[in-house]
Design a protein that fits this description.
- This protein is α/β, with parallel strands linked by helices.
- The protein folds into three domains: 10-62 and 175-283 and 428-490, FAD/NAD(P)-binding domain (3-Layer(bba) Sandwich); 67-171, no CATH class; 288-411, Succinate dehydrogenase/fumarate reductase flavoprotein, catalytic domain (Flavocytochrome C3, Chain A, domain 1).
- It is 29% helix and 20% strand.
- Bound molecules: flavin-adenine dinucleotide (FAD).
- Pfam families: FAD_binding_2.
- This is FAD-dependent oxidoreductase.
- It comes from Pseudonocardia aurantiaca.
């Protein structure tokens, strides 16, 4: 008898009667699962949505709610921006690379306006106004924000247009996306079974996936899927063993998840021969306030800048963790600090203040000559509105004046929607890699052929990305490829 720790598939021949049968079984009720279940049911299939928690939502409901959409959405147009699918794809290939999934990115960009409309048809509201400053999530209900498109080097790669669309909500908006998708799922008659944890796939004699074995209130519960199983179980940041195996640089950091990203869906699929992709990649929510670094600088342990500070902060986080081992400091002066309104500072305060770069360097343990040289070079060029090293927009450039302050990212942040100090390693992370899928969500095996009867979407898969990450691409590719996976599963 298999136990919860065993991920190997169960033979269908071993199961005398299934507890329940359906056409399409979707496992995991976050944004990807909701989108998949909706489309499968809308295609006329009988759909069962299985969820381990007592309600749907997943990490999706906790999210900022940014959804990466472009190509000329009504919100972009109302805010005065021209955009097209080609420019959107160019940006995504650069920002999510190297070697982002070209086929997925191209399709996603081409159908982005239609996906926006699909979300609006499901009742997801977006306000046609722009939040025009670097941030994680606008503190207002503005519906549009930049995601680094207007920062170097992307300004030289694609025509900039803001593409972060956030459902109308002050600060975090993932709850609203899930509220509307949950209503949509109910409206098309999807059966939802909560408190049920899928542990193993059920395999036919020909290697085809026929259902799942789950645990429900301590008992085994079996589900037969007549057409297909869709795995939308999220990533694996909560599984320490998997992190150590695949993404060791993410070990020891705060986790950006609902606590259920244990990678079980990925493991169950691997156990039937599924391939995985980009498992070492991670989103790094570095604990800093984007508006502060844009007005100041971020330096490494040598006191040197290493990235343009007005880009998407997750890219700053990736550079800080993967290239600087999180040995980084935010440097700012009083005018820069005061320019960021208090509600946007998320509890961040200067921890060290000094009259000279050398004194500040001594306080934070970086080479005094290094920090002095960095500030002198920055100031000399900033006075002329230039940044020859990292090309920060002249909008943010101004010589920094004493007293100088240093902020330790390890002191954490306190976003309005979260409790606690967030103090820790300086970063909250989640995994980006996962199952290797086609644009229709078919899960591929090591030969590059679809595993019969098995589909997946969301963070259980490797979506648009390889290594890079831009906020909005997770709720974006989860819902977009979730829809495609659900439709394809229903058509089996
Ligand atoms: C604080 C925070 C802010 C974020 N902000 C953004 C943002 O603004 N934009 C963006 O794009 N992304 C954001 N993200 C990331 C994004 O929320 C996730 O990557 C995305 O929601 C993943 O969607 P999903 O449907 O794949 O997984 P989830 O939403 O996590 O859903 C997976 C579901 O599967 C269930 N499950 C797991 N295993 C099993 C099992 N074995 N059996 C049954 N059920 C199972 C889980 O309980 C969960 O409900 C943020 C994340 C966090 C935590």
């Amino acid at each position: 008898m298999a136990t919860d720790r065993t991920v190997m598939p169960r033979a269908a021949s071993e199961i005398r009667t299934f507890d329940v049968e359906t056409d399409v079984l979707v496992v995991g009720y976050g944004c990807a699962g909701a989108a998949a279940a909706f489309e499968a049911a809308s295609s006329g299939a009988q759909v069962l949505l299985l969820e381990r928690a007592s309600a749907g939502g997943g990490s999706s409901a906790l999210a900022g709610g940014e959804i990466y959409l472009g190509g000329g959405t009504p919100i972009q147009r109302a805010c005065g921006f021209d955009d097209d699918a080609e420019e959107m794809a160019k940006f995504l290939l650069a920002a999510l690379g190297p070697d982002a999934d070209r086929e997925k990115v191209t399709l996603y960009a081409e159908q982005s306006v239609r996906h926006f409309e699909w979300l609006v048809e499901r009742g997801v509201p977006f306000k046609p106004s722009l939040w025009d400053s670097p941030t994680w999530v606008p503190p207002t209900d503005d519906g549009l924000m930049w995601m680094g498109e207007n920062s170097w080097p992307f300004t030289e790669i694609a025509k900039p247009a803001p593409r972060g669309h956030r459902p109308t909500s002050n600060d975090f908006g993932g709850w609203l996306l899930m509220k509307q998708l949950t209503a949509a799922v109910a409206a098309v008659g999807v059966d939802v079974l909560c408190d049920t944890y899928a542990t193993n796939l059920v395999e036919g004699s020909g290697g085809d996936v026929l259902g799942v074995v789950a645990r429900r209130y301590g008992m085994e519960y079996t589900v037969r899927a007549r057409r297909a199983v869709v795995l939308t179980t999220g990533g694996f940041v909560d599984n320490e063993e998997m992190l150590a195996l695949h993404a060791p640089q993410l070990v020891g950091h705060n986790k950006n998840s609902d606590g259920s990203d244990d990678g079980r869906g990925i493991l169950m699929a691997q156990a039937v021969g599924a391939a995985v992709k980009h498992m070492s990649a991670g989103q790094i929510g570095i604990s800093l306030v984007p508006g502060l670094i844009a007005r100041g600088m971020i330096v490494n342990g040598q006191g040197q800048r290493f990235i343009t500070e007005d880009t998407y902060p997750g890219l700053v986080g990736q550079a800080a963790l993967y290239r600087q081992n999180m040995d980084v400091w935010v440097i700012i002066d009083e005018q820069g600090y005061e320019a960021v309104p208090e509600p946007e500072r998320w509890g961040v305060r200067p921890y060290h203040v000094a009259g000279t770069p050398e004194e500040l360097a001594a306080l934070i343990g970086v080479p005094p000559a290094g920090l002095r040289a960095t500030i002198d070079v920055y100031n000399e060029h900033a006075a002329r509105g230039q940044d020859p090293l990292f090309h920060k927009s002249d909008r943010w450039l101004r010589p920094l004046v004493p007293p100088f302050a240093a902020i330790d990212v390890k002191m954490g942040l306190r976003p309005p929607s979260e409790s606690g100090s967030g103090r820790g390693s300086g970063a909250s992370v989640f995994t980006i890699g996962g199952l290797h899928t086609t644009v229709d969500g078919e899960v591929l095996n090591l030969d590059g052929r679809p595993v019969p009867g098995l589909f997946a979407a969301g963070r259980a898969t490797s979506g648009l990305h390889s290594w890079g990450y831009i906020s909005g691409t997770s709720l974006g590719d989860g819902t977009f490829f979730g829809r495609r996976a659900g439709a394809a599963a229903a058509s089996m």
